[in-house]
Design a protein that fits this description.
Layout lengths: L3 H68 L10 H11 L3 E8 L2 E2 L13 E4 L7 E7 L1 H53 L5 E2 L7 H14 L1 H4 L4 H8 L7 E2 L6 H15 L5 H8 L8 H5 L1 H24 L1 H20 L4 H27 L7 H53 L4 H9 L6 H4 L2 H32 L4 H28 L3 H19 L5 H16 L2 H11 L4 H4 L1 H56 L11
Parallel strand pairs: 5-6
Antiparallel strand pairs: 1-2, 1-4, 3-4
Amino acid sequence: MTLNPVKQALEALPTLKKRLFGVIMVGVIASTGIVAWGTVKLFEKELSPVVQKKVEMIAEQLGRDLSLAREFNIRLKDIPNIGSYINQISGRYPEIRAIVVAVDGVGILEEVKVNQSEYDFVKNLSAKGEDLKIYVKTDRDFTQSKMESIVFDILILLFVGIILSIEITLTLVAFSITNPLKHFQTILEKYKQRNFSLVLRHRGQDAIAYCCKQINLLIDSLPQDISTSKNNLKVLSTLKLDRTKNFRQRAVTDVRIPLFIFVFADELQKSFMPVFVKETGTSIDFLPMDVLLGLPIMVFMGMIALFTPLAGRWADRFGSKRVYLFALAPAFMGHILCAFANDVIWIAAGRAVTGFGYAMIVICCQGYIAGIVDPRARTQGMAAFVGILMSASMAGTAIGGILVERIGYQSVFLLSGCLVLIAGVIANSFFVSQDVEEKADGLKSQTKFMGILLNTKFLVTILMSAIPAKIILTGFIYFIIPLYLFSLGSSSAETGRVMMIYPVLVIALGPITAWVADHVGGTLKILVFGCFLSGVGLVIFHENQTLYAVVLMIILMGVAHAFMKAPQIAFIMEIAETEMPHQGRTAILGLLRTLERVGSVIGPLLAGALVASVGFSNAILVIGCLVSGSALVLLGYFLKNNVSNNKAITP
């Protein structure tokens, strides 16, 4: 029985994937480009008439008000606050730059002759020998900005479409080709060793399914084909023919789509949550509003911090699939609560319930992946996990900002709930329920974390790297950025696009940093560099109160965190190597997530207090100094303690 054809097929897979990706990308880009071009053309054609019609309606309304005054023989100049009234109408509509009311060609306010050619619309109200006209000048920048906005939205949709295509293609290739071939190879190797107890069942009508079916028929017929002579009975006794186990191995692709959809659903609210809280209002009057704005983020992160270690234990005990499916219920209910909330307290309650489900789903998926990858490639395995999270975060944040301007807050939360249910249906089909037995040896009734908490290297790394990274993430990006950009006049869609820069950079640079950590060494150096750089970016640009300064801060922070994400997990696993057999891999990862979530809780609280006391700019400065300072403390500790190994810094 030869394995060469299977090996050759597996070796040819990378080339097949590249070609498949190329075809899909060309199709996605071409189709989206055609739709985008048609949308822009339609928008250009329809926008100007819509603006013109709206201007006419505004002028008609103003004309009716002025005509009413004329009926009572009231001179327009004698109407109290007539100038404020006209300016209020002009300022209420972004399509209008100026409105001038003129009598006999002279403005009633400025008392200068009006040049009609400078205005786009004229409403004639002349009567009784009086030449009364309303001149309206439209804001041409409004049309341009709308065009730019629609183009950016289309580009975002194109980008998200590419991400979804990649995720779906990776999953389909893995389930249809890569995994079946690997399973087929493993089964053949078992059969070569005379172990026929495993049965490979591959659904479908392809060549792999046909081969599996024929081999299964052949193995099932062995007892009848072998004669009952004494020698053949000896041969038969050496064969394992108790074919009771269906063979299926776990793979990273099992969790890719369910995790992506779930995180995508939760990330839809990220670009507008503080603004949503501000507009919803509250009956609470004993806490500053700036603190209450961060309350939903705080309770969400707090629930994740509280239940992550328990979720790790539950995943080890009951299996990732069961924990994932159970966690869907609170996640779904949380989105529904937010959809119908009319007070900050109800929003916070919804986010708390969602956080409970989020903690279980993310940690069981992380443990699922960690149990699959080889320890020598642990960083790359965690990079795949981080990549899924960042892809979903990037797509969800950007799409959420676009959707909320078109369908409203409530509809976005209801959509999130529906996506959570879809993720559950897919997870029920994809997950393999066999990780309970594999992790049972690692538990052995060890329910306390004291062993790992006595590891000072672990604690210092958490306190000076993981927690500060979460403080700047939740405090600056999740809390300050939406409110800060809102104060600068940016829309939710613009905020989503700006916030999307962070996960884009983490995804783009993550594999590079993982490769550097695995092949070059210096995981601790990367952590220190990333932590320090993320804070420095805030310090440098905190005084520039512009959209471009915010973009630069997020770029530096994204680059910095790209150097921290996967190497941080790998470094934690290295310095906790002695505790891992007793505590369990998933439990240690759960403890890491729990402790770093302390920073996620502190971030919005600290940011809200700083914004309330010193304003946005100084709050950004303080957070940047704290994070960069923690990086220096981390470096000083490991230098002082002379930490030297092939993955850490040498003095």
